[in-house]
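Q&A log
Question type: sequence-to-structure
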Amino acid sequence: MDTFVSELMAKMTLKEKIGQMNLLSVGADVTGPVLSEGVEEKIDNGQVGGLFNMYGPSAVRQLQQRVMEKSRLKIPMIFGYDVIHGHRTIFPIPLALSSSWDLNLIQRTAIAAASEASADGLNWVFSPMVDITRDPRWGRVMEGAGEDTYLGSQIARAMVVGYQGKEKMLGTDNVLACVKHFALYGAAEAGRDYNTVDMSRQRMYNEYLAPYKAAVDANVGSVMTSFNEVDGIPASGNKWLLTDLLRKQWGFKGFVATDYTAINEMVAHGVGDEKQVTALALNAGSEMDMVGELFSNHAEELVKSGQVPIKKIDEACRRILEAKHKLGLFADPFRYCNEERAITQILSSDKIALSKEAAVKSMVLLKNENNVLPLKASQKVAFIGPFIKDQGNQLGSWSGAGRSQDCVSLWQALETAGLAKQCTYAKGCNILDDQALIARLNRDGASLALDAKSPQEMIDQAVETVKNADIAVVVLGEPAAMSGEASSRTAIGLFDHQIALLQALKKTGKPIVLVLMNGRPLTLTWEDQNMDAILETWFGGLQAGPATVDVLFGHANPSAKLSMTFPRNVGQIPIHYNSKNTGRPFVENSKYKTQYLDASNTPLYPFGFGLSYAQFDYSNLALSSPTIKANQSLNVSATVSNTSKTDGIETVQLYIRDMVASVTRPVKELKGFQKILLKAGESKTVSFTLSPDDLRFYDSDLNFVAEPGDFQVFVGGNSRDTKEATFKLLAP
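Response status: OK
Response body:
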């Protein structure tokens, strides 16, 4: 590869090298590619390195054929796309998948997505998104793995390996992964997308950077810059971030692509005009310009004037060409244009089955008073809500090439399972009642509409339907268009008209099961107090309907655990389990302590929380030693018992706390987890090994150290309800 790329680059002009750094967006129609103005000429002149938003073997072949026939050096293009939670077979949104705590499952969804995408002409996906997220107002929380550094790092690694495989040269069923958004994007102030991010280096290293590094350590092929600033400098022009940290400290070998027009947007940030921000980006280490075309417009002049070293262009071009070589495009530019593969691999039965499995394993049971779930075969069930017969919204945001007609709705699943005969239905309310908001979302691609019936007529019909049933299942939430990019919210509860429906149904006296469809944690204080059961299904993908039916009727037992805290109200945000203590920790009935006057400090549902139809008990927490030396490991074990008459899966979680350190440490940090199946009445001893590395953190000088002293260790079914013990790390 090195020899091939060197020989090729020796033939390239400066303009052609810069052309490899130009990434353009195109569209598609039934007749083939729809190109932006001037793209054909740029392709012919070797001034396009890659295209995105184009898929389909025939369409990709047409464009690749053009560059191979008309450009001077015939360098094939790379084709990318936002394959976030599946390509055509849509899996649950990433936040939902992370709630499964099932790394094997998550990796299998990435393998399936890579198989489909590569069969559909693509060879590069803009995933995984690994930003740590602690503010559910931010719409893009749906796209990541939640709030925890450790869990997020494990998932980042699993997804990169799933997309790319384990080999350096990628097979035809693999794609190049792109970890994003580098860096800190999930910490946007006020949860408002694209907003400012500002934090200390120590917090970056200890809490936010680890998932990106895990992806780099897994040999991710590309990195995407974030829109936000880091230390006052936009990420796409931040030399410390892209060169000192990513290249020199972490040893990243792939190429860096910007997010959509991120270089152009540095002008609005206030760090220079177009030429200045282009120079800033090139000198910092940005290597492929997504859509903005500032490299194409200014890089040649900047090199010739000495403002950008030619070495920067050569390094960027080399890394992009190396990626194409690893994808096998120089050996066969059309290796991802196989119509037969598209027919056999897209929406194949095994992928559909995996979509259902993933949806089942991602659903979190938040409440189940008096075991009203699972539903019984003898019950007459009233299904109420605007999502029950809806297909499109269950895809969720960032559903890429997914199509609503491929989805199976909840009502369709009831009919297929032969359960509809014991069920009745009423819509109950619209998904949204706010006409201005509906118009805004529809302008941006949603398809929301108001029912011909008035809101009160729909509520009245729902009330009558529930009165004639034994139990009500009410499916509510937010439309898919209200989470994802540019979809921040200041209020994250159910909408007022949905609450009005629930209040009316509550008066019937019938048990109510609330089923949620949403892309973020919601504020559910009233619902938690008034509903008999609450099941969080998120946006579950193509098979959300059948998966929900299986869980509701007990054909599957929920086992997911929250990867992101649910606040009581927005006033608690940002909220996360691994916070730090203050000098005035909360004490009941004491004024001058850290607390709210009008609400508890505690979340509604903590990180790691999730119920099952089984019940689990923890006991016999034991440590292999009360002390360990710096080169020793500690065995931690606990007995977990299924005290119910139902088989179930429990995710056993291990946390630690460093009690005294040179810099303050969180009250809890996740350091391990295991999923175990326990049959009814069965007990198992679960063991973890804490290594010295698990005790390390970045100190005030950013040294990665484990300091001698006292530690607490916690084992339990969530971050709140744990057994605890202590041990001491001895000085060397």
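Response note: DSSP finds 22 helices and 28 strands in the chain.
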